[in-house]
Give the backbone structure.
Amino acid sequence: MGERSDGYDTVRTYLTLQLRDQKPALYRDLKSLGGVDAAARGKEALSVFLRDEMANSAALERALLEHALPSLAIWFPVQTFQALPYLLPHVRRENDCRRRRCPDRRHVKRGKGRTGEPRDLWSTPDAEGYVLDDNSLVKECVKRLRIASPNPLLIGRTLGREYVACHIEPMRGAQDPWDNSRVANLVWLPSPLDKLSDRQGSTMQHVLRETSRKLVLAGQVPRTVERHVHEPRLSSFVVNKAFIDARVAKIERVTRVLEALVTGRSPESGSGHSHYDLHWQDMDPKRIGPLARRLRAYLDAVARRQ
């Protein structure tokens, strides 16, 4: 898989070394406020600094984020926005699904030293046919992707510990489950910078939204005029056709299961989620019909783009 980049180590090196060489004035301002020392002392000290001190210095916070995020945050490239605008449209975010026990006591875990333990609700279907997930599937799908970056700390590496998949628009209260895996709504941030994205109306949210908007616009411009559009130079995952095809295949498997159940047939193959498949008999064809049709329309649209 190659060398990995850990979130906090990357942030610490950026703040204590790279920033000093690239933006001396910004480095001095940050150092005078205690930020450089906090980064050197550890993740908790840096977290406290970002939460308490940085929040009281809006100008410094904005200057730092505008310089740091293009090289430290990891995005999907514009080509992915075009080819596969939703990574996991069949998945619904349910943060507590691993804490809730499956009501069917016959469903028990197998292997990994936990054979016979009751299963939780992760990867089971909800009433509308979505696969329940606590954000694990979003994280997993980029695990093996290498990174292209203007930052030498990230070039050619894969994500290690302390990189967090963040939603630019908060998912709390979201009306459409598909927004959870909308490519334009996803960015991977190193800890502890990810905490700044949780503050509604924060500078971090504003910078991320503006960057996402520029990427979306760049993806909508025809190739004949794209030289006039300034696409942001960012750190991004290296995505190839094999990655896109693999994601499409996973969506196709769930779609075929739903289509079979809607028409009263037994699915010819599984969804790729073993616990999901144990609940086929619990799914109401009328309730899952809209998702089956929407997924098929999405797959058809994706096929036309290729």
Notes: DSSP finds eleven helices and nine strands in the chain.
